[in-house]
Amino acid sequence: MDKPPKFNQSDYSKFDLGVDRTPGDSVRILRELCEWSQKELEAKTGIPQTTISAIENNRQNLGVERTKVLAKVFNVHPAVILFPNWKTDAA
Fold first, then answer.
1. Range of the domain at 31
2. Per-residue confidence of the chain (91 residues) as pLDDT tens digits?
3. Phi/psi of residue 20, each to 5°?
4. CB 86 within 8 A of CB 54
5. Which of 34, 55, 75, 90 shows the smallest number of beta carbons within 10 Å?
6. Number of domains in the chain
7. Is residue 69 included in any domain, yes or no?
8. Is 1 helix (H, G, I), strand (E, B) or coil?
9. Residue 15 falls within a domain, yes or no?
10. Whole-angstrom Cα distance, residue 91 to residue 83?
């Protein structure tokens, strides 16, 4: 299984779109950062492409088990997916 690229906080500047993001948005953003299609993500997770599409378009909830699977494939903590609007003062 291909590992996603490693991203460091220093690779990005702080940016706030001023809009709320959903867990589905997080999945789409992470998938696109990895340059994977929904079919490629299906192959890596076993989650059907149609379900991935529904999640990304906020037509289906993630659920705990799917979140764990996606977090492992994206190499992120599940909170990154579930709480995309979390603000922190950490540098």
1. 21-82
2. 677 777 676 666 565 555 678 899 999 999 999 999 999 999 999 999 999 999 999 999 999 999 999 999 999 999 889 887 776 665 4
3. -80, 140
4. no
5. 90
6. 1
7. yes
8. coil
9. no
10. 18
